[in-house]
Amino acid sequence: MVLFMEGLMAHFQHKNKKYSNGFGPMLKGFKQVEFNNIKKLILAINKKTAGIMIEPIQGEGGIRPANLSFLKSLRKICNENNILLFFDEVQCGFGRSGKLFSHEWAKIKPDIMSVAKGIGSGFPLGACMSTNKACVAMTKGSHGSTYGGNPLAMSVGLEVLKHISNKTFLSKVDKTARYFWENLKKLENTSNIISEVRGAGLLLGIKTNISNIDFSEKLKKNKLLNDRYSSTKILSLSNSGRSKNFIFNYLIKKGVSKSQIQNNLNLMKQDNNNWEFESAKIFAKKKKILEKNESYEKKLAKMARAGFSYDICKKILG
Q: Do 87 and 220 fall within a single domain?
C-alpha cells in the first residue's frame, strides 16, 4: 500500500475522468491522507505500507507548501518503519522555491523523486531519481525506453543545470521571491479582494473572493498571461465554471527581475482596485444604500462593515 497526500497532482489525474478515461482500470493499493496532518498519517500506516508520496509544495492542490516540520516527521517515520519516501517535484523543483529542490528547505532527502518541467526549461524532459538502496530492484536496462535519455534532451538538461548551479542564481531567485512575497502580503492586508497569499519562492498562490473567469480575462488584457486549471480552480500566471474563491498559481520564470515583479504588482494593484470598486457598487445597489434616507456617516459605516476601504466608500457615496 502507498499513502499519498490529499491534493497530490497524481490524485487529480486518478480521480478526474478527463485524465483517466481510456487508461483504466486505475491502480489499486493507494490510500489518501490529509495534507500536513501527521497524526492522521501515523494512524494510516500499517504493515502493508510500502511508500509515502507527497509534493513538498502542491501545485494543482492549491499552492500549498508542506510544513517543514511535517516533512521532517515524514522522513523520521519512514526511517523507523522501513517505508520509502517519494517526492513529486515535477512542478516545485529545479529552483522554483529558491532551492534546487523544495524539500531542501526541510534539510531532508527522499528515497525516490520525480522531476520534469524545470529540468528542461521548456524542453520535454523528465527523470525519476532514486537512492542506490531504493532502486535495488531496478537494474540498468530493466526499464528501457526508445526515446528516454536521448542526446538532445540530455544536452538541454545539462545546460539548465549549469545555469542553476551558478552560485548567484538561486540566491537571486530567493531574494526576488522574498521581495514579491512581502509586497503581495501588503496587498493582501489592504485588499477586499485578496483573502490569502501562500506558497514558497516564485511558486505563489493568491486566494481571492471573486470569480476566476472574469478576473482572468482582466489580467490577460494587462498582458499577464494565465491559464485556469478546471480541476481545482487554479489560475496559473506566467510572467510575461465560476467560483467564489480561487487560487492564482503565480509561476514566475526563475530569471525574472525585480522591475518585472514590480510591474506585475502594479498591474495587480490596479486590477484589485478596479474589482473592489465594482464589488462595492454591486453591494451598494443590492442593499439600496444610496436610496435610503440615512446620514452619510451611517451609509459609510455600512459600506465599511462590509469590508470596503474608506476611499472606495467615498467614491461610491459621492
A: no
Residue 292 and residue 299 in contact, taking contact as beta carbons nearer than 8 Å = yes
Q: How far is CA 217 from CA 3, 156, 223, 261, in A?
A: 38, 34, 10, 20
Same domain, 196 and 264: yes
Give the integer Cα–Cα distance in Å for 290 and 299: 8
Distance of alpha carbon 74 from alpha carbon 86, whole angstroms: 10
Q: Give me the amino acid identity at 68.
A: L
Whole-model pTM: value is 0.79
Q: Kindly report, residue by residue over 123-152, the tens digit of the pLDDT.
A: 999 999 999 999 888 877 777 777 778 899
- Indicate which CATH number applies to the domain containing 88: 3.40.640.10
For the residues 280-309, what does the mean pLDDT come to? 85
Q: What's the pLDDT score for residue 238?
A: 39
DSSP string spanning 287-317? TTTTTS---HHHHHHHHHHTT--HHHHHHHH
